[in-house]
Each structure stands twice: as structure tokens, then as C-alpha cells.
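# nightly structure sweep
# worker-07 picked up a monomer target from the shared queue
# config: single-sequence mode, recycle default, output format = C-alpha cells
# input follows
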Amino acid sequence: MCSLPGRELAAAGGLREGLPVDMVGHMTSPTFADLTTIGVGGSIARFIEPDSRVGVIEAVEDADDRGVPLCVIGGGSNMLVSDEPFMGFVVRDARRSIGVPDEVAPVEGDDRTVHVSAEAGTNWDDLVEFCVRLGLEGVEGLSGIPGTVGASVVQNIGAYGQEVADSVDSVEVWDRETKKVVELTPADLHFGYRTSALKSSMYQAPATPADKYFPTPRYVVLSVTFALRHSATGVVNVGQLARALGVETGTRLETQAIRDAVLAVRAGKGMLEDPNRYASPWMRGTKEDRTIAAAMDALKAVNGSTDPDYNRHSCGSFFMNPVLTADAAATLPEDAPRFAAPLPDGSGTQGVKTSAAWLIDHAGFHKGFAVREGAAASLSTMHTLALTNRGSATAADVAELARTVQNGVESAFGVRLVPEPVAIGIDLR
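# output follows
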């Protein structure tokens, strides 16, 4: 096996045994429970944390050459992993630098575009904070979303009137098929609602893994370049945010004020990660100390303490908002939310998007719902769209809750909710 830069932690006996302990029973590798925001998941046969571009590529190639499962993990915020041992490689990119290539280029005319490049392992909110602090507009509405820059373009993260697709200029990837580094444009990426060409390469149908590339896409993100606007103000795009700021939709405000409001609204719904996770030895160094401290201060301001907040021990929004055909949408109750949106089949046909949270609530699953009294997994007490670990849940507990909600919504409305997180070793079709 090639020597990999960065931190490598492997099981005694290698992949054949796959047990992440040394000869005297000490843990030498993290579990998925250590690496994910929901805090569940089994042991890992081999954990590799390369700190160079070459190291990332070599780790991916090594797994592919051996024919073992490969999971390239970012912040662990959008995945639900089985309690069973993962008999493969888990690779986490330790490169976290951010650069501004335009700093040395003269401004031409009225063009206020500024390009920002970030390595795939960069914490997403660290990037947003950097851009806002630099006086750049374009990602402030995406404040507080957990995860990494690399994962952001796979999922096409979005919130409060912005999507990452709006700002992506190019994405540098390693193509596992051709074994080449490729630069992809937004046109190549085929961005859609919570999807991209990267994510599509992992699935043959919604929630149905592809035969070859799962749980890591064909294209492994190495870095992303964003095209932002040099402006200290941004547009308040959605009503919920406008109400929080006391302004009309469409108003321009300082991007820092917009960021602060987004974080406050998210905190009010429990839709932020728990910053306590960065005290874990397996998470140290993955997020800037400055933004961790700010998040801890905010947690104390909201909850009165910095104790763990179990409403935040989740995958965020667990189900995607369904996009239905006009005929299917017509069968929903009259008061169900409806928004125009293209169907996810890529045909360009217009469909109707409805609210997963509305369907869940109106199917009888209210905030705090659990499959039984005292269950270790429940819906958040603040938001029906978040499935949470109340401190001792297993992946099986969370999966049981997810299936109960899926089955109930389908029985009530004929709509099968599709999970947003990547489900590894768990069937949530």
C-alpha cells in the first residue's frame, strides 16, 4: 500500500478483520458516531485523513484498486450510517485553505465579481464567515449549514433564497472512472433541487444506490471556486428572513446582518449543529476556533447553557420536499403548500413542490414524536423535519423512526418521502 500523507488510522489485521482496535483492545479509529452530526453509526475498518491533494487522490485510488467500499466524508452532517462495521475506507480531506485568486488581478470596469477558491475539506460555515467578513455577497443566506465545501456542491445545499449553485464558478474533481483530474462547470454539474451530477452518479433511482459508485460519487471533489460579488450588502430574499429582520422582502441589508438573522432563525428551529461536537478528538481542527467559539456563545444565549442540545443531534432536514406531477399534487388537501418547480426526472416538465414538514405534521407526526415512550430517537421538539438522537440512539432507532414517518405520510397522502441524507447500509426506499 502506498504511503499516504496526513493521519492514517487502520485496524489491526487490516481490512480482512475490519475491527478498529489494536491488539489490547484500544480504539485506533473513529466510528461513524464520532464523525456525524446525528451521532450514530458503526465502526470503521480504515480511516484516512490526507492533508494533500495527491494524498486524497491516492487514498481514493487505493480503495478503488482494492475493490473495497469507499466513503469520502465531509462534516458528517448529511449521512445516516448503519450500526454494522463499515468494511472499507473512510477518507476525510484535511485540506482547509481558502484563497482569493483575484486579489492580484486589477478590477476592470464595473465588474465587481470576486472569485474565492476553497479546498474540499473546508468547513462550509467557515467559508461563509470568511466571505462575509471580506465584504462579499452571495452565500450569506447559507450561513449555519453544517458540512464541508466539497459536500456542498454534491448536495447543492440551499436555504433562505440561495443555493450553492448560484455561486459556483467551477469544481475540480477526481474522476474515479477515467482516473483524471477534471474541472467541471455549472453546466456539467446539472444542479437541481438538492442534487447535482455528482450526487446522481450515486443513485439509480431515488434512495436506491447505484451498483458502482456508492456511497461516494464517481467524481470526488478536490476544490471549488465560487464567483461572488464585492458588496457589503445582500438581498433579503424570503419572507421568513424578512420578518426576522423587520424589513420587506427584496430589501438590501448588510451581509453580516443577514448572516446573523439566518443563524438566529436556524437556532430558533434547532437547525444548527451542536458545536460541542468539536471537543471530540476526532473533530478537532476541522473547524476554525473562532467560529466554534461564536457558535458556543450563541448556544448559551439561546439555551442558557452550553450543554449538548439534542435537537441539534440530527442530519438537518431529513426528508426532501416532494416535487409532484400536477395530477399527483391535485390529490393533496387544498391547504397543502404548493410551489412551481421542475420535476426531478430531468425532463424540464413543470411540477408542483410541496412541504415535507407540512405532510409529516398533517399525517399526525408532531414535534417530539417518537415511535414509543422513552425512545432514543424522536422528531425534534422544535421542527418536524429533523429526526434526532436524544443521546443514546442507534442508527436502527433512527431508521425505525424514519420508516414510521414515511409509511404514515404515504398512507395519508400517497406520497413516499425521499430521505435527504445518504443512507449507508440502511434501506429507506
